[in-house]
Amino acid sequence: DELVYVMGLVLELRCKLQWYKSVGVNSDVIRLNKQKALDCWNKHYADNLVQPSMNFTDSTTDLIASQMVRAKSAKGDEFKRYLSSPVVDASNMKNVLVWWKNHQHEYPNVSRMARDFLATNGTGVPIERTFSFGSDVLTPTSLLLNADTIRKRFCLKAWLNRNSETFVFQKMKSIATKMTGC
């Protein structure tokens, strides 16, 4: 599987690695895809902070520095923590990226990774959907129309589908402009 698809499933809150198991994917494939996700995480997103040096003369600074080191190591790897957490019931969610935005304090680097991968279209479906009504607009009898007329038909159809109120307003405005000559 390509990295975009692997990361799309792993970062999709309802799926993670559990989806692979639920549909009966071979455990070797699951292991390979998990490794791809971890490699991507380690290479591009893992927080590689330099541990503070313990060579301070002031004992108070040593204490604070050692507490900070312990706090960072106790937090653990953010991506592994995300993977080990249960899948999220996101059925009522309209946009998974909104969930990531709201939870970026829990997973700051994983949310950045999710934003990078989940905002990518896996296919050209949106553009294909835009033109899928072409056979409705271009009937066999209208195939001889010029390109500008076809473009106008596509635009009108898209506007009708998007918001009929706006379309009606624009149509009335256009008619009024033609009638008044302004």
UniProtKB/TrEMBL annotation:
<dbReference type="GO" id="GO:0005634">
    <property type="term" value="C:nucleus"/>
</dbReference>
<keyword id="KW-0862">Zinc</keyword>
<protein>
    <recommendedName>
        <fullName>HAT C-terminal dimerisation domain-containing protein</fullName>
    </recommendedName>
</protein>
<dbReference type="InterPro" id="IPR052035">
    <property type="entry name" value="ZnF_BED_domain_contain"/>
</dbReference>
<feature type="domain" description="HAT C-terminal dimerisation">
    <location>
        <begin position="78"/>
        <end position="160"/>
    </location>
</feature>
<dbReference type="GO" id="GO:0046983">
    <property type="term" value="F:protein dimerization activity"/>
</dbReference>
<keyword id="KW-0479">Metal-binding</keyword>
<dbReference type="Pfam" id="PF05699">
    <property type="entry name" value="Dimer_Tnp_hAT"/>
</dbReference>
<dbReference type="InterPro" id="IPR008906">
    <property type="entry name" value="HATC_C_dom"/>
</dbReference>
<keyword id="KW-0863">Zinc-finger</keyword>
<keyword id="KW-0539">Nucleus</keyword>
<dbReference type="GO" id="GO:0008270">
    <property type="term" value="F:zinc ion binding"/>
</dbReference>
